[in-house]
Each structure stands twice: as C-alpha cells, then as structure tokens.
Amino acid sequence: MASPEGLSLDQARLAEVSTSFVAAPPSGARQSQKEATRKRVIDAARELFDRQGYQGTTIREIARQAGISVGSVFTTFASKGEILSQIMEDRLDGLYGELDQVVPNLRGSTADRLRSIFAIHFSFEARRTRLFLAHIAAAYDWTLSSAARPMGRNQKLVGIIRDCIVKGIAENDVDPNLDPQLAVDLLRAAYVWIYRMAALDGADAEAMTEVMDRQIGLIASGFQRR
Amino acid sequence: MMHISQIQTSDETSARAPTRRALAKQQTRSKVLAAARRLFSEQGYEGATIRDIAAAAGMSTGAVFANFTDKSDLFQEIMLTDMIALGEAMRQAASHGVTAQDSLLKLFVAGYRFYQAQLPLARAAFSVGWSPQDGPLLRGSLPVQTLVGLISDQLVRGAQSGELKADDQQVLRTQMLFDAYLANYDQAIFQDWTLEALQERSREQIAILLAGIRKS
C-alpha cells in the first residue's frame, strides 16, 4: 500500500480521509487504494473459506479479518459469491499456464490426450475440492452475477477440451459426425462428479484421475471412429 | 403448476384416522411447506429466510421451528416429496419404452417435463445439491437413490433382452447417465432450452454412453 512518507498507517488513512473532503485524490491513487482493498478482502476470504467453508463464512468476518469495514468490502465486491468467484479465477491462471505449455505436445489417441489434460487439472485442483463444490453451488444461487459462472462453463477449459476433440476428428481418430459440444458436455458432467467424490470421500488426485480415466474411456467408446 | 398441489395433497393423506391435534399439526406443516416452496422458487435457497417463510404462511417463526428443525430440513422435505413423485413419473415413462435405450430417453424427458413448470425450484435444488453440507444428504437420500436405481434397471433390462452386452462397468455407466441427465438442467435453467431440445440432446448423450455395450 502506498502511504505518504513519514506517516504511520493510521495517519496515512486519516490523511486520505481528510483529503477526500478537500479534493478528489488523483484517480491513480484512488485506483491503487481500491486494488489494495480488493487484495485484502480476497486474502482474508481465501483463508476463512479454507478454514471454515464458504457457507460458514460471513461478510462481516471477512471484513474483520481484512481489517476493514463491512461497507468497504461492498465497495469492491457485490456479494460473497463474487469474492469466491474471483478467488477461484485467480487460482486458475497457474493451471492454464501449465496446460498451454503441455497440451500442444501431447501425443497418443484423443482419449489419452483428454486423460492427460484432466490429470493435470486434478493434480492442480485436488487440494481445494470443498471450495470448488461451494463455487458450483454458488452458481445456482440467486446472489451471484451471471458473469461469474464457474464449473465447466469455464470457457478456457471448455476450449481446450473442444480443440482436443476437433483435432481427433481431423486425425481420423474421432467420428466425423460427432458434435464436439456433445462430447464436451459429457466430459464436463463426468468431471464435476469427480469433485463430489473427492470432497465427500476424500479422494486424492490419483484416485480422481483413475475414475476420470475410466469415464473418458467409456465416453470415447461412443465417439471413436469405427 | 397443477402437479404441485397434487403432491401436497398426497403428502397430507395418512393411513390412520388422525386425531384432531395431529390434523392441525399436519395442516400447519403443509401451510409452511407451501409457503416455503413459493419463496424458494422466488428467492432461491440462500435468499429465502425462515422469517419470510413464516410470514408468508401467516404464522410465527416459532411455529415453523416447532415443525422443522431448520431451513435445510424444510428444503429437504420439499425435495424428497418431489423426488418420490418424480420417481413414479420416470418409472411410468420408462415402462413405455420399446428398447432400453428408448426407456432411458423417456425417463430423462419425464424428469425435464416434471420440472419444466418449476425450474427456479430446480435451480435452488442444485444450489443445495452442490453444497458440501447438504449435498450428500440429498444425493444419498432414498428417493434420489431410487432414481439412480431406475437408470440401472434399464441397463439390466437391455442386457436381459439381448439388446445390450453384459456390462462390467454398470455402476459407472449408470452414474454417468444420471450425471448427464442432471447436467442438462443447466441448459434448461440458464439457456431456456425447450423440452424438445433437451430430448434431442439426451438422445445423443444416451447413444454415446451406451455405444460400448450395444450389440452389432
């Protein structure tokens, strides 16, 4: 946080409050202040969601943990669901970086390439399965904006899977009459089931991958070129 | 929404002749359930509070809590009542299928038809179904397991009639069919898919999921 030199944090805050009465601060400063608040909210919420779950955490607790007022939380996020969405989205950057590197180099059948993609996904996500479930639940919640749709609606992942299927068709491995979206939907349905398994039965990434491998095999037997 | 009131009246019927007091309690319960059903549909599971539900039913929150332990209990009761009726509708529909594949499709469509007039409630059910706390309760409940069992029954039937091969992955295949059935609600809820569109998509999904065990 950018604070004027020689001032303690409280003094800096006081200074900011008083200047806001006098004149609008440069918009850059306001912007970075807002960014800082956002970051504090996200850090606090991530820790609380992890410790006591999404439903068990209130906005008031997030505010207390972040050391700001409830009102300030709402200046940066419209709802608890939106905070969760942002946390989930932030985490995915690392995953997508990894997938972007690995996917172009995958070899083997379409089914095997799909297996690798999901295995990478699960090894990345396995640690936060309960949060993932809460995120899906929140998507059906009235309080979450429609822009913040998680799960397989996640365009990046859907795109990677779709590309894999389309490539399979081009390489004569997949039935050319297959609507790629159909395969994407089935894989997505299978994929979310795995999370439930992990969250409820404590399955680790290896167990998740093993079941997904079988599910992909079952789906692939329906779209392979024969 | 005619089937909703049908469900509620069937809920009220009791085998034994009830005492006046039991009858009054039963009436209170169905009043609360009707109000809760409406508010969950209008405001979602998170949005509807016990206080709102009590007000809508014209009673105190204390009276609601005398009949239900909490909001989750209230919602589960509504869901389970629906699931029992849904299971019956699916069983009926499946019995009219010519082949196992056809029965599965009819079973799926019976489900979409059942919820067509109450998609907001289905949406609330998904919200609860995915919650780490209440989800396992709903999914593990007998009525939901009965739905899964109905899908499995069609696979067994197909194997017996010679339409399908013996399946060494029957549990997995059943689960995947059920998950495909559930996943299509996304299109119904968020993209306003018609019954016909849902049926067409289900037909293709079932064909893919059965391809590995279909004969010839």
Record keyword descriptors for this entry:
heterodimer, A: 226 residues, mainly alpha, Arc Repressor Mutant, subunit A, Tetracycline Repressor, domain 2, 2 domains, elongated, disordered N terminus, B: 216 residues, 12 helices, 0% strand
Overview of the structural elements:
The complex is a heterodimer of chains A (226) and B (216). Chain A is mostly helical and 226 residues long. Chain A has 10 helices and no strands. In chain A, α2 (27-52) crosses α5 (80-102). Chain B has 216 residues and is mostly helical. Chain B folds into 2 domains: 1-68, Orthogonal Bundle (Arc Repressor Mutant, subunit A); 69-216, Tetracycline Repressor, domain 2, CATH 1.10.357. In chain B, 78% of the residues lie in helices and 0% in strands. The A-B interface holds A 53, 55, 130, 133-134, 136-138, 140-143, 146, 149, 153, 179, 182-183, 185-186, 188-190, 192-193, 196, 199-200, 211, 214-215, 218-219, 221-223 and B 43-47, 123-124, 126-133, 135-136, 139, 169, 172-173, 175-176, 179-180, 182-184, 186, 189-190, 201, 204-205, 207-212.
Q: Separation of termini of chain A?
A: 61 Å
Spell the H/E element sequence of chain A.
Answer: HHHHHHHHHH
Shape of chain B: elongated
Number of domains of chain B: 2
CATH class of the largest domain in chain A, named Mainly Alpha
Uncertain stretches of 5 or more adjacent residues of chain B? 1-12
Described by strand count, sense and barrel closure, the largest sheet of chain B is: none
Strand content of chain B: under 5%
CATH homolog superfamily of the largest domain in chain A: Tetracycline Repressor, domain 2
**What share of the residues of chain A does DSSP label as strand, in percent?**
under 5%
What's the β-strand tally of chain A? 0
Q: Determine the N-to-C terminus distance of chain B.
A: 44 Å
Multimerization status:
heterodimer
